Amino acid sequence: MELKDIFLTPLYLPLILLPAFWLRRKMTDSVTRKYFMPALLVKLAGALFLGLIYQFYYGGGDTFNFFHDSRLIWQAFLDDPFTGLQLILADSKFHPELYKYTSQMYFYSDPYTYQVVRLSGLLGLFTFHTYTPIALFFAFFSFTGVWALFWVFYHLYPHLHRRMALAVFFIPSVFFWGSGLMKDTITIGAMGWLFFGFYFGVIKRENLVVNILIIVVSMAVIKAVKVYILLCFLPAAFLWIFLEYRTRIRSQAVRFFSLPLVLLLAVPVSYQAIIKVTEENKRYQLENITNTTMVTATWLQQVGTMQSGSVYSLGEFDGTWTNMISKAPKAIFVTLYRPFLWEVRNPVMLLSALEAVFFLFMTLKVLWQVKLSRLFGLMGAQPVVLFCLVFAVTFSFAVGVSSYNFGTLVRYKIPLMPFFLASLYVMQSQAVKKRKKVKRFA
Predict the structure, then answer these.
(1) DSSP states of 216-258 as a string?
(2) Cβ atoms of 152 and 32 closer than 8 Å
(3) Strand, coil or helix: what is 125?
(4) Gap between the Cα atoms of 314 and 99, Å rounded
(5) 415: three-class secondary structure by DSSP
(6) 60 CB burial (10 A radius; 0-12, 13-18, 19+)
(7) Alpha-carbon span 24 to 377, nearest angstrom
(8) Is 252 left (phi over 0), alpha (psi -120 to 50) or beta?
(9) What are the residue boundaries of the structural domains of the chain, listed by start?
(10) By C-alpha distance, which of 317, 312, 315 is closest to 335?
(11) DSSP 3-state assignment of 95?
C-alpha cells in the first residue's frame, strides 16, 4: 500500500456505496434490509484488513504478488496502450513483444492464477492502479455473490433469516479471506451466483433465460480460476435435481424404489459433466487428479514447514486413487474441525481454531437433537440440505487431502463454510419443530 491509497480510497468508496444503496432497494425486503449494509461493510473491511495484514504482519504474499503483476500491465498501458491490451488478453505463452513485462511477473505462466492479474490490471486502469480501490471492487463483486447465496436460503427458510445471515455473511474467515485481492474472492462471489442461478433457474424454473445465463457465466468464472470447485458442485447439484423431482412423486412406493435409481443416474451424469468441465485443464482430469493432489500437497506442506510450521499429516501419500480415498475421513475432519486450539501457532490460526470449535459444537448439537436414526430421513426430505452436505463433505475432502498446512487450508475451505453451517441450522430447526409437534400431541 502507498500514500495514494489514503487519498484515493475515500474518492472511490462512493462508487461502491451509491450503487449499493440502489441495490438495497431492489434486492431486499422489510426483513432482509437490515442485513444488507452490515454485510457489505464487513466485506469492505475484510478487503482492507487483508491488505494491512499481508503488508505489516506477513510482509508480502499472494495479494501483493497479484498487485505487482498487474502493475506491469498498468506500466505497459502507460508505455503503449496496445501492449497493455495484449497483456490483459495474453494466453500465458511466450510472446517476444511482451517479454519485457512478462519476464518480471510471478504468475504469467499459470493461466488460472493469471486470471486474477488480468482483472486487477483491468481495474487498475480506472483506479490509477491503486491497491485499496482495486481490493474494494473485488470485495463488492464477492458481496453481490454472497448476497445472492443468502437470498436463496432466505427464500427457502425465511424463518431462519438471522442464522442464515450469520452463516453466509459473518463467518470471520469467509469475509476476511473472501474479500481482498485474491482468487478466493472471485470464486466465492461466482459460487454464490451459481447457486442462485441453479436454484431459481433449474429447481424453480423461473426466469430461465436470465438464470441460465447466470449459471453459464458463473461456471466460466469458476472454471477459469479454480475448476475443482465445480468438480464438487456438479455431483451435489445433480443429486439435488433428482431428489427434488423425486419428492414430487405422490406414490410412496415409487419414491422408495426411485432412490437407488436416482443415485445410479447421478454418478454417470456427474462423471460426464466433470469430463466436460476439465477437458481443457489436464491437471484436474480424472486420470490426473491423484498426481496433481500429491504434487500440490507436497509443495504446500514444504511451504507450511518453512513459513510457520502449521502443517498437518494424513499419512504417506503415494498418488494412487485407493490411497487418496483412504484418507477421506481424516481429510474431511481436518478441514471441518481443525486446527485444534492447542495446535495454534499464530493469530490467524487462532481465528480458524475458534471457528473449528464452533463447527464441532454445532455438529455435535445437531446430532444430539436430530438423532442418528432420523438424520438420513431428514436429509432426504430436504434436498437442499443434502446438496449442502454433499458439496461441503466432498469439498472438505478435496482441500483437506491437498493442502497439508493450515495456512492454506483456512483460505481454500471458505466456499464450503456457508453451506455447511446453513445445513446444520436447517437440520437443527427441523429437529426442534418435530420435537414440539411430539410434545403437542403427547
Answers:
(1) HHHHHHHHHH-THHHHHHHHHHHHHHHHHHHTT---HHHHHHH
(2) no
(3) coil
(4) 42
(5) coil
(6) exposed
(7) 38
(8) alpha
(9) 3-176, 227-441
(10) 312
(11) coil
**Mean confidence (pLDDT) of the chain:** 83
DSSP 134-155: HHHHHHHHHHHHHHHHHHHHHH
Nearest to 120 by CA among 66, 79, 82, 72: 66
pLDDT at 439 over 60: no
405 strand-pairing partners: 311
Find the length of the chain.
Answer: 442
User: Residue 68: in which H helix or E strand, if any?
Assistant: helix 62-79
Q: How confident is the model over 392-407, as pLDDT tens digits?
A: 998 888 888 877 788 8
Give the least confident one: 63-77, 101-115, 283-297, 409-423: 283-297
User: Per the structure block, which three cell numbers stand in for 375?
Assistant: 438424520
Which amino acid appears at position 17 of this protein?
L
- φ, ψ of residue 117 to 5 degrees: the values are -65, -45
The whole-angstrom separation of Cα 278 and Cα 145 is 24
Across 136-145, 241-250, 254-263, 323-332, least confident range: 254-263
Dist CA 178 CA 157 (whole Å) = 25
Place of cell 424463518: 159
